[in-house]
Each structure stands twice: as C-alpha cells, then as structure tokens.
C-alpha cells in the first residue's frame, strides 16, 4: 500500500481522489511518502513579535470544516480498506507568514486534514479562511496557543490525535527576531524571551510530536523499494543559525540550538523510522518587513548581499518544507536545508 499526499493518504487512493476533483498534481505523486498527518507549529520566519494566546488554560477550538466521518478519529493510512485523508497539525506564531504558507501548501498538495495553532487569533482565523476558501474539502482543526507553554504542546497533540488519529508531518516554525543588541546590552529577560520561543518552544513541540510518532504504525512509501516512514518533522531554524550577524547573538544562538537539536533527534529516532530535518530561511518577504519602513530598510541590505539580490517568498520556504516531509526525501536525515538565495555562500 502506498501512502497518499499530506498526512498519510495512499498515493494510489490520492490519485483517484484528485482525478475526480481535477486536482491531479503529477509533481507530487512522487512525494507521497508523506505520513498521514502533518503538524505545523509556529511561524518560522524568525521575525514575529508574538505573545501567547494560550492564557489561563482557556481552550478555543474551532473547525474549518465539520468532521463528518468517525474514521477521522482512527489511525491514518487505511481503515477497513478505506483510505483516510491526511492531517497536518501546524504550530504557528503569526500564521500570515511562513506558517500560513506551509499550511496552504499542504492543502494544495492534497492534505485534507490540517491542524494549526497560532499565537494570534486574528491571523489564525485568516489562515483558516484562506485555506477553506481555496480548498473547501480540507478539514481544519484550529486552536490558538503558546508553544513556549510546557503544557500546551502535549495538550494540542492529544487533541489532534483525538480527532485525527495520528500525526504524520509536523512543522515547527514559531520564532521571534529580538532586539538588535550586542551581548552586553542584552538583558536576561530578552535572552530568555528569545530562547523560550525559538528554542524551548520548538523543543517542546518536537518532543510532543516524537512521543506520538513513535507509537504509530509506519506507512509505506510511494516507492515500494524505499523503507516505510512513521513520521517526519521539519523545524524552521534560520541561516543565522549557521552564520553570525552583528547585534544578534541571542537570536543566532537560539537558531543554532534548533539545528543542533534537529541533528541529535535525527540520530536518536532514525531507528523508529522518523525523519527530523530543518529549513534555514534567509531574508523572507513577510508583511512585517514590508509594512514597517525601518525594519525594511534594515533588512534590505542583507537581501541585496545575496547572489540572487532579492528577498525570498514564504511559498519558497513552504516548498522546501514539503519536500523534506515527503518520501522523496526518504534518505534525508538531520539536514539543515538552507533556503536563502545564496546568502551564506558569499
């Protein structure tokens, strides 16, 4: 049995469903190594200044589409010979950036069950509406929350599994840039804030995802000769986790930590058929950059330094994320994929 698009549908079944809906995407048929449910945590452009929406233990769950079938509660892949649609839990800060692009990309690729979380209820609602409008068959589980909360990650994962049965892809992209300060000027509060979201939040989310994935059955690849996959996690780090930048010691360190964690988890969970990789974006054209003149002026020189002489698009990061989740990347493990227009090469 061959898995389908995002979240664990089998390729064979996915093709038939897509042909009926006239959505066939040949370029994705070879990437059906996706396990049945992706999860996205946070907006990984590293430039959000968000705070927690998971306050006072309040739960705010909404659904973009009514969950029609009891089998949505079951494990992914096939249930009694029937394929269940994929799930993509997305944990995100400010979903109008990279996190939103990833959610939309999973839906466009055929994932019909997506769970997303965001620190900001407004952008969370915007992303839900955008996905639902473009892909009305996609079922969305939406919940505002704080990835830095040590209880939220497990609670959200439990809710996703309760409704969708399993998690096959997880994308952790919560991040904040921080103030432009040297180490001596950086307060302990600012240092802790950056690391609480960028590193600690990513670790908490990834830990919850790994805890679930190790309990799941592995799903077959699109290619019978390749090994099955129990799950795939993509953490969003930064090019600044690999190279330094003036006035950003705490941020650079927090993103380096994400890369180191990714590599260590990849080693530890290879035996469980779980792949863990990360994407390292460069300067990405997001609303926050384009709408704030002072920030745009500060960032533009870095973009012009790249060989490609431009900022990247959120969709270009989403493409890299989807590739790393797919079984076309079945031999990619512990990799920090740089998507920065060539910035670190010069």
From TrEMBL:
Entry keywords, A to Z: NADP, Oxidoreductase
Organism of this sequence: Penicillium subrubescens
Pfam family, one: adh_short_C2
Keyword Oxidoreductase: yes
Entries under InterPro entries matching the protein: NAD(P)-bd_dom_sf, SDR_fam
Domain of life per record: Eukaryota
GO molecular function per UniProt: oxidoreductase activity
Family under the similarity heading: Belongs to the short-chain dehydrogenases/reductases (SDR) family.
Keyword check for Oxidoreductase: yes
The protein's name in its UniProt record: 2-(R)-hydroxypropyl-CoM dehydrogenase
